Amino acid sequence: MTTAPSTETDDSPDPDFPDSPESVTPAPGRSIWSPLRPLVLRLHFYAGVLVAPFLLVAATTGLLYAASFQAEKIVYAQEMTVPVGESKLPISEQVAAAREEHPQGTVAAVRPSPEADASTRVLLSGVPGVDAEHKLAVFVDPYTGEVRGALEQYGSTGALPLRTWIDEFHRDLHLGETGRLYSELAASWLWVIAGGGLVLWFSRRRKQRKVRGTSGRRRTLGLHGTVGVWAAAGFFFLSATGLTWSAYAGSHIDALRTSLNQATPTVSASAGGEHAEHGSASAESGADHGVGLDKVLAAGRAEGLGDPVEIVPPADASSAYVVQQVQRSWPTKQDAVAVNPTNGQVMDVVRFADHPVLAKLSRWGIDAHTGVLFGIVNQIALMGLALCLILLILWGYRMWWQRGRTSAFGRPIPRGAWQQVPPYVLVPLMAAVTVIGYFVPLLGIPLAAFIAVDVVLGEIAYRRGKRTYAR
């Protein structure tokens, strides 16, 4: 980055914003990139203008979510932490203490105290007044059996009300399945916008990338491009991992993994069944069914399952207990065993080390996206990426404003760039976009709609004699 003073002004021609037909016409002998660059610029510009509001919401709520992990520890310290005692009570006694104070519902799972100063969580399902997708977590002092409180819990990371509210706001704006479309749209377009920005930035002449010594739109562009380049890898990661568990693209990813035998294996909850996901306890089952929780936990420990673990009671009379590790920070602990409720023998074991490669990558990717893989370092990195994205969006809109002249606001990029792309490049490019659009529908459908509207508007402008490029 140079410190030399700039002689460029806002009125200087800017190769990133062509204003005339000549700017989209490739000079003789130039590379194939010449006709492609205006096309990428137009896509980057319009995608940024139209999708940026969704990205801004996703970035802002993502920033709050990344900070919610530490906030949760402060807000719910009374429930989550206990004074360290001499020895912990058996798990069965801790559950009995929780049930005495909260007899409604069914014991869905138990998470024994993972650390010396941490409480035990007894998770109850079917409790009146609690969301059907949530559990009531009863926090028990493992040394005294004192119930320190009860809070709604959501998800496998054990999110409590504060983090749950922010998580759902980030995921679907509290609008349910319909609201999930916003976050999938943002994830679908983030990598496209970031990739287009990278291509445009590195295709600029080096002297045009400087920030120091510039002013006006050139300075805004320099800040926008520089920060975007440094944060691009993170944006690609957030986009890819966000799509992993999205509604539509996520289903295609799951189908692909299944076809490649890369699905995540789960422990068998029956004596002779193949691996199938084990559900939560039914209303008829008891937490101490058969040999009881203490012997079941001891069987899991004997198989090497260290803290933190979760014990899931049998779903029915023909099912087994499941003891599974729930540590998703590094190193990941996700081993699981099924324990026969009759004799306490281990019936099935699934080791995270034996998971398929794509299953491991998916687990690590999602955990890094949600801020749990590397703890507070992970959360700070996510907050940094979210802040960068917010700044890039604001700078992008500022450039749009600064590009206007007199009473014009944010003049659009001229049409017609695609007509200059050679057919041997345009046809494969369209085929690739079609395939990607099929697997990522919230990229493909808006893009198709944009192209259709753009063509119609261009034809209308042409018929009115206002078309900005030669036919």
UniProtKB/TrEMBL annotation:
Keywords from the named record: Membrane, Transmembrane, Transmembrane helix
Give residue spans, biased composition: Acidic residues: 8-19
This protein's record includes keyword Transmembrane helix: yes
**Full protein name:** PepSY-associated TM helix domain-containing protein
Pfam annotation, one family: PepSY_TM
Tell me what organism the protein belongs to. Streptomyces xiangluensis
On the tree of life, the source organism's domain of life is: Bacteria
Give the region (Disordered) as residue ranges. 1-29, 266-287
Ranges of Low complexity composition bias in the record: 268-287
Record field: transmembrane: 43-67, 181-202, 223-248, 380-400, 421-439, 445-462
Q: Which residue range or ranges hold the PepSY domain?
A: 88-149
